[in-house]
């Protein structure tokens, strides 16, 4: 029998909804600003995100976001979303999420023996520590077309004895090694005058130094790794041998780096400790800014969420859940997941400070290029599998995998972000909240009133592989109800040259409509890693980020925003600061403030205890959540679609799936390859 929720979803038994004249005018304006997405694979670019994605939806607000014609405004954010805080007391306005253990000062001094292509080379350095990035200036004497970082002052004073000794040692050698201020620098032996100060929040980490040539299409010149000693009495000044990333790369030379650690006193952080630079994203509950931390000059991304909006949209529970997930993944130093550095609150807002990924959204690059070669897509998918494996191993279902939620760092590695729809699974492993982004919803989210499992993430991964390699979404339609039918029953057709046989088999395994037979149902992400599609991947090297990315984003400085949507980044600085400083005019009651208790953790032990008590938190969520998932089934006004045949089709499909389960047979998930003569105007579905 067809679930009541599915009947409502496909529009049975409801009257058509007619937009008001003001709604029609607003939709027309939005469509003019965001042109519709083309479904033709020959299109050179993917269209903008807004029409292709009915923004991530959950709860009662899904009526406006997911079940209306796809004209909505872009709500994608540029980093992982936030959760709620420790204290609801308005007098306790600002709280630190995690104590900064200290600061690590890194100075990139010089290199020697680089294999530079020409005298016009402009080698620059990307330093990464604990997922935070620093990008150097151009070398001394080079054409300064690559500005970044912090120039070291000629007479810099340090309150730390260790840092003072290191500063004097560095300045005495700052002009050695073939460079100079006379403009005749030898770019095979460049000298830099840069320093970076990293916040140390999670204990010992690895410092990676990578050198590229900005003048020759980001040519790779080598990298070195160092694990700094977090000891104030032991500063280091070392020459590091540059290494190749893979066999066959010709890398020569060394790089000189000095590091010194300084302990700092515990303190609380708030909005005044950060300088707002750019708007990089905007969502339902707030904005995402590129910010500079004033004491270390480190660049971060800051997400500012309105408490009032969170309460009004009944998203308190999701916000709490996201915070807990970010805390855990940050503590575990999970590869390929954006790290949470700080969180704090004011009486009106929640603040999440995460690593800033200067490579921008994967969606932005996919838009510009249309589609990726299979090897490039495989690399991204492999790193995402590791990210999902980490989440699933901690009983977290992600629920919103899409290109907009995948960021690239300056070297080209992925970082999964935005955990606003993620959830720690209950004991039975199932959840039933209707949420996600329409194009990536798994069929069981639409059709199964008994709930769904972590397998929904692998369905979304299959859609993502198809989109990256083929250039369009396999189920997209400008009408959401038609898109739901495509997801439930449509045939997926592959362009002849889009994927290898192994790649097609991998996608078909992920797009099996029966989650019990879907690839990953037996051994989760480890089953995906064993698929022949990844036969050439060394997973140990991949997880250590020792496999070179097939694409390096063009980044001119650590404040570069060119890889983000200019719709946001081109906002004037004054307008950005006005938005950042704007506060709610209506004070929130103490009862509402109490919902945000637990937002901040103050030490590592409470961090782990918080997550260990997730079984308790599930009960707590029931007290805080302002809507019941089961009530969603009757809360929507859907469009009326004639569908008696659709009901019969669905019933037949469900009966066949049940029979397959009884017989132990595996369903092919209704996914088949496309013949050339079946290819009509981009794509075609048989319903």
TrEMBL record:
Record EC number: 2.7.11.1
SMART domains, sorted: C2, S_TK_X, S_TKc
Biased composition, class Polar residues, residue ranges: 45-59, 73-89
Keywords: ATP-binding, Kinase, Nucleotide-binding, Phosphoprotein, Serine/threonine-protein kinase, Transferase
Every Protein kinase domain range: 274-534
SUPFAM superfamilies with a match to the protein in the record: C2 domain (Calcium/lipid-binding domain, CaLB), Protein kinase-like (PK-like)
InterPro entries to which the protein is assigned, alphabetical: AGC-kinase_C, C2_dom, C2_domain_sf, Kinase-like_dom_sf, Pkinase_C, Prot_kinase_dom, Protein_kinase_ATP_BS, Ser/Thr_kinase_AS
Protein residues bound to ATP: 303
PROSITE patterns hit by this protein: AGC_KINASE_CTER (PS51285), C2 (PS50004), PROTEIN_KINASE_ATP (PS00107), PROTEIN_KINASE_DOM (PS50011), PROTEIN_KINASE_ST (PS00108)
Enzyme class: transferase
Descriptive protein name: Serine/threonine-protein kinase SCH9
Regions of compositional bias (Acidic residues) in chain numbering: 657-668
GO molecular function, one term: protein serine kinase activity
Biased composition (Low complexity): 16-44, 60-70, 158-175
Chain ranges of the AGC-kinase C-terminal domain: 535-611
Catalytic activity: L-seryl-[protein] + ATP = O-phospho-L-seryl-[protein] + ADP + H(+); L-threonyl-[protein] + ATP = O-phospho-L-threonyl-[protein] + ADP + H(+)
Region span, Disordered: 1-104, 138-188, 651-687
Residue ranges of domain C2 in the record: 85-244
Protein origin, superkingdom: Eukaryota
């Amino acid at each position: 029998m067809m679930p009541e929720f599915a009947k409502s979803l496909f529009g049975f038994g409801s009257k058509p909804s007619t937009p008001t004249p003001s709604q029609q005018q607003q939709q027309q304006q939005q469509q003019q600003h965001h042109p519709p997405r083309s479904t033709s694979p020959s299109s050179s670019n993917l269209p903008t995100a807004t029409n292709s994605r009915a923004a991530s939806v959950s709860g009662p607000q899904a009526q406006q976001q997911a079940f209306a014609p796809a004209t909505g405004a872009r709500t994608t954010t540029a980093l992982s979303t936030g959760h709620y805080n420790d204290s609801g007391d308005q007098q306790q306005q600002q709280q630190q999420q995690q104590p900064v253990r200290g600061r690590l000062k890194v100075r990139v001094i010089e290199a020697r023996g680089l294999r530079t292509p020409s005298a016009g080379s402009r080698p620059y350095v990307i330093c990464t520590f604990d997922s935070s990035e620093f990008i150097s200036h151009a070398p001394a004497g080079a054409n300064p077309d690559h500005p970044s970082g912090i120039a070291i002052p000629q007479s810099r004073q340090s309150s730390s004895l260790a840092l003072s000794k290191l500063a004097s040692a560095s300045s005495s050698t700052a002009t050695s090694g073939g460079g100079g201020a006379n403009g005749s620098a030898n770019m095979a032996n460049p000298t830099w005058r840069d320093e970076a100060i990293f916040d140390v929040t999670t204990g010992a980490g690895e410092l990676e130094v990578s050198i590229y040539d900005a003048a020759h299409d980001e040519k790779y010149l080598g990298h070195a790794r160092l694990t700094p000693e977090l000891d104030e009495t032991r500063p280091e000044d070392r020459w590091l041998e540059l290494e190749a990333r893979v066999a066959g790369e010709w890398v020569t030379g060394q790089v000189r780096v000095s590091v010194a650690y300084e302990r700092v006193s515990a303190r609380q952080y708030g909005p005044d400790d950060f300088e707002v630079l750019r708007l990089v994203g905007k969502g339902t509950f707030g904005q995402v800014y590129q910010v500079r931390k004033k004491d270390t000059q480190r660049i971060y991304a800051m997400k500012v969420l309105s408490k009032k909006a969170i309460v009004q949209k009944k998203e308190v529970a999701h916000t709490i859940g996201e915070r807990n997930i970010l805390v855990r993944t940050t503590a575990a130093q999970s590869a390929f997941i954006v790290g949470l550095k700080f969180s704090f609150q004011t009486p009106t807002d929640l603040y999440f400070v995460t690593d800033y990924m200067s490579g921008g959204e994967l969606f932005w690059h996919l838009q510009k290029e249309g589609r990726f070669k299979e090897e490039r897509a495989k690399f991204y998918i492999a790193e995402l599998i590791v990210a999902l494996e980490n989440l699933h191993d901690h009983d977290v279902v992600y629920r919103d995998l899409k290109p907009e939620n995948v960021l690239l760092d300056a070297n080209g590695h992925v970082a999964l972000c935005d955990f606003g729809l993620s959830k720690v699974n209950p004991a039975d492993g199932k959840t039933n909240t209707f949420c996600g982004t329409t194009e990536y919803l798994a069929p069981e989210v639409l059709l199964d009133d008994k709930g769904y499992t972590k397998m929904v993430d692998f369905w979304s991964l299959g859609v993502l592989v198809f989109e990256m390699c083929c250039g369009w979404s396999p189920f997209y339609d400008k009408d959401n109800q038609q898109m739901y039918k495509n997801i439930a029953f449509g045939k997926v057709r592959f362009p002849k040259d889009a994927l290898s046989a192994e790649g097609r088999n991998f996608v078909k395994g992920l797009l099996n409509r029966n989650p019990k037979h879907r690839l990953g149902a037996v051994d989760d992400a480890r089953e995906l890693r064993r698929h022949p599609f990844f036969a050439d991947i060394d997973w140990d090297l991949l997880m250590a980020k020792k496999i070179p990315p097939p694409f390096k984003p063009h980044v001119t400085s650590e404040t570069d925003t060119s890889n983000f949507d200019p719709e946001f980044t081109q906002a004037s600085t004054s307008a950005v600061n006005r938005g950042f400083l704007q506060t709610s005019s209506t004070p929130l009651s103490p009862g509402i403030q109490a919902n945000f208790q637990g937002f901040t953790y103050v030490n590592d032990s409470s961090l782990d205890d918080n997550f260990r008590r997730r079984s308790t938190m599930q009960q707590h969520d029931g007290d805080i959540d302002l809507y019941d998932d089961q009530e969603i089934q009757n809360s929507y006004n859907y469009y009326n679609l004639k569908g008696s045949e659709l009901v019969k089709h669905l019933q037949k499909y469900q009966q066949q799936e049940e029979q397959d389960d009884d017989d132990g047979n595996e369903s092919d998930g209704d996914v088949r390859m496309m013949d050339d003569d079946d290819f009509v105007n981009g794509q075609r579905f048989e319903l």
